[in-house]
Amino acid sequence: MTHADWLLLPAERGNPATCLDRRRPDGLAWSTGNHVRPLVHGAVYFAELLAAVRAMDPGDLLMFTDWRGDPDERLAGPGTEIGSVLCRAAERGVVVKGLLWRSHLDSLHFSQEENLHLGEELGRAGGECLLDMRVRPGGSHHQKLVVLRHRGRPELDVAYVGGIDLCRNRNDDATHAGDRQSFPLARAYGPHPPWHDVQLALRGPVVGDVEAVFRERWQDPAPLSRSPLVRLRERMHREDISADPLPPQTPDPAPCGTHTVQLLRTYPNRLLSGYPFAPDGERSIARGYTKALARARSLIYLEDQYLWSPKVVARFARALRDHPRLRVIAVVPSLPDQDGPLTLPMNLIGRITALDELRRAGGDRVAVYGLENRAGTPVYVHAKVCVIDDVWASVGSDNINLRSWTHDSELGCAVYDEHPDPRPPSDPAGLGDGARAFARELRLELMREHVEAEAGAGAGVVDGLCDPVSAFEAFAASAAALDAWHADGRPGPRPPGRLRAYESPELSLTRRLLATPLHHLLVDPDGRPLGMRLRGKF
């Protein structure tokens, strides 16, 4: 078997208008010869990003897109505020271009003002950052990418793609003490919510693909917003409302590794006028997952902020029904980020219905966990990671929910390593694919942290995590020990591990609401008011 069995062929993307599948003479819909590194935790990513931006010279090109950007968020201590770092780069001659989601009103707990301030700061320094509202009603631009291109030094070129925004709460590390610059979540997360997240550092030809994604959006001729009020504000405040030309795209960096990377995206079918690069939208994230899930036989490992929507989870449930040896491990937030009397059940309904679908299909082969830090504070899981059979790995901005698969703009990376992993079991799925080094090591790095293997579980646990069945059992044992310690009043030393079985008093309350016909009047299965129900197909 080869990566063609796991990745989408050009015709399978379902979007012939994009340039992504026409960039190479061989017609491949992916790039080969890349080197991909997972950056687990915002502090790791921010420190690397800071060093990389500071090393850029006049004439280099920096491009970024984000859901939210806080100009005062520090990358690594005082003097490293993201706004200042980008502005200093622009002032010394780096070409800096950014796209931020314009957002809805801040009264809805989004980020309109923060994004506006970052754009204004960057504009004064000579860069350009546009506030982009070219989305469907109720949707957002959720892609999180940074591309650094170096004039005459292509060996330094790098792209960052994943789930980490350039904003508050993200600068946390493996201790999960939380970002000192925080905005509040649900009360259980405390004043500095612990935050778990993952970004990828990409080098090699894939950097050109990520740049092409940015250029397609940057060159969209549609107005940044159709709202008359927004356009009036733009004129009154003299906001930048049109994109200046970008420098010509330089050749892709040379191959430098063994990783094949395919960019997967979601774009909605935009009303009135579609995106020129996706006139009918794009659902390659949904299609990529569907193709990979059809090959799942052993273990699906998920870390996801939502894990909502029976319509999306049905793909996972089908795999569980079709293959009785398949197991699913999911790591999710113990509680939603909002705990209001209406928002809490709205959030939980989407997850409960999705988890019930999975458990009907897989029974005790499905295990779902939350995380806590050493102080017992829940960790907010913002990561968007999926590893299937230690072969196919995906990291991106996309969650396992309907809006990420149909409605918001999203960007993810599916990674297939040409290098097999030598550790047994060499072929856990039994399909002849063989475990791949990148996918397995990504899963192991995340699992080791959650069971605190290095903190006292011993080398045997680390080795045992390679085997899917042993890994499933190790997670269950770690969570059971910590749950029992809490239930007994926390006697003696705290057991190693951060895993808690996913359950809370709010779940039983929400289940009672689900048992009544009234819940259909409040929310759809994706956890939003019915007025925002999505009708996208994939």
Summarize the entry for a quick read.
The chain is of the alpha+beta class and 538 residues long.
Task: Record the SSE blueprint.
Blueprint (H helix, E strand, L loop, with lengths): L9 H4 L17 E10 L1 H13 L6 E6 L15 H10 L3 E7 L10 H13 L3 E5 L12 E5 L8 E5 L32 E2 L1 E6 L2 H13 L9 H9 L22 E9 L14 E2 H10 L5 E5 L6 H13 L4 E5 L11 H20 L3 E7 L5 E4 L3 E4 L3 E5 L5 H5 L3 E8 L19 H15 L7 H6 L3 H20 L11 E3 L3 H10 L4 H4 L16
Parallel strand pairs: 2-3, 3-4, 7-14, 11-12, 12-13
Antiparallel strand pairs: 1-8, 1-9, 2-5, 5-6, 6-8, 9-10, 9-17, 11-15, 13-14, 13-18, 15-16, 16-17
Helix pairs in contact: 3-4, 7-8, 8-9, 9-14
Could you explain how this protein is built, in words?
The protein is of the alpha+beta class and 538 residues long. The chain contains 15 helices and 18 strands. The protein has helices at 10-13, 42-54, 82-91, 112-124, 206-218, 228-236, 284-293, 310-322, 343-362, 402-406, 437-451, 459-464, 468-487, 505-514, 519-522, and strands spanning 31-40, 61-66, 95-101, 128-132, 145-149, 158-162, 195-196, 198-203, 259-267, 282-283, 299-303, 327-331, 366-372, 378-381, 385-388, 392-396, 410-417, 499-501. It has an 18-stranded mixed beta sheet that branches. 54% of the residues are buried. Mean pLDDT is 88; it is low at 104-111, 455-459 and 527-536.
